[in-house]
Amino acid sequence: MRTDSTRQLAGWSSARLVVVDERGRTPVVRDGDTATLTTRPTEGDSPPEGAVLLGEADGVAYWAVRGAADPAADDDPADWQDLRMVGAALDPLGAGLLTTAVAVLTWHEQSRFCARDGSPTRVGNAGWHRVCEAAGHEEYPRTDPAVICLVHDGGDRVLLARQPTWPPGRFSVLAGFVEAGESLEACVQREIQEEVGVAVRDVRYLGSQAWPFPRSLMVGFHALADPDQPLVPADGEIAEARWVTRAELRTALDVGDWAGRPGDAQPLLLPGRVSIARSMLDAWAALD
What angle do CA 136, 142, 143 make, to 5 degrees? Predict the structure, then answer.
């Protein structure tokens, strides 16, 4: 579809637009714990410059464009929410559309010039590549792999850490970006050693999640570690680290997401449901 301009034009009049503002927000309709994307009809005879084809579902093409709330058209700015706020409440189609839209639109804005010679680039393939105007080099949306790992002792304790920018009590599992020439498993071992001074073993894959902030792919693992090792938080990266029992984790999960309790003095606040970190903790806490 990305190279079939005839098909794109034929489906444009019935297509729907996912409009995303510069802060990554889009209009949604909330209904309790669920949310639905509010898409817009298309205008004109063809996709505008910079529009990104997201794909088709049930015979309807979806495109992503930059835009903003329009109060003159009864567009309520309060309905505009970003992935962190609403991602976990969207259905699979809505979550996939918004995640892709945020990722690719952001890439375009950061890739206006060729990485090889600095020449301006132009959009091609319905928004899925850019072409260097000077030499014709093609560039595609970047994805930066990062590992995220649930470290446990093989029993009922899990290792959590807090970044310096987080308020006291807010903890999550450890994560870090993959370096050049490094395998995912090697990255897990290096990052955990660097961040909290702990050696891990038996590194095993769990799952992955697109994380377009701005262009990451979170690759989830779990690994074993000896809880008797001293914890040495990396200066400037980790404010504190601690081992948490399964019972403590279950209690914290019952409290709810950290994003929903600003200023609440809870002893352990955990990631929201939108993140793979929360899925990993939920699954580990559910084990007998």
Answer: 160
Alpha carbon distance 111, 134 (integer Å)? 15
Residue 42 predicted with pLDDT over 50: yes
What CATH number should be reported for the domain holding residue 40? 3.90.79
CA end-to-end distance (rounded Å), the chain: 47
Q: Where are the alpha helices (DSSP H) in the chain?
A: 5-12, 83-86, 92-109, 184-196, 246-255, 276-285
Both tokens assigned to 96: 């996939």
Query: How many domains are contained in the chain?
Result: 3
CATH label of the domain that carries residue 207: 3.90.79.10
Does the reported pTM lie above 0.85? yes
| Tally of CB atoms within 10 A around 170 | 17
Q: Are residues 136 and 148 in the same domain?
A: no
Q: Which domain holds residue 10?
A: 5-110
Q: Quick one: angle between helices 276-285 and 246-255, nearest 10? A: 130
User: Mean per-residue pLDDT for 263-274?
Assistant: 78
What is the CA angle 76-16-70, rounded to 5?
25
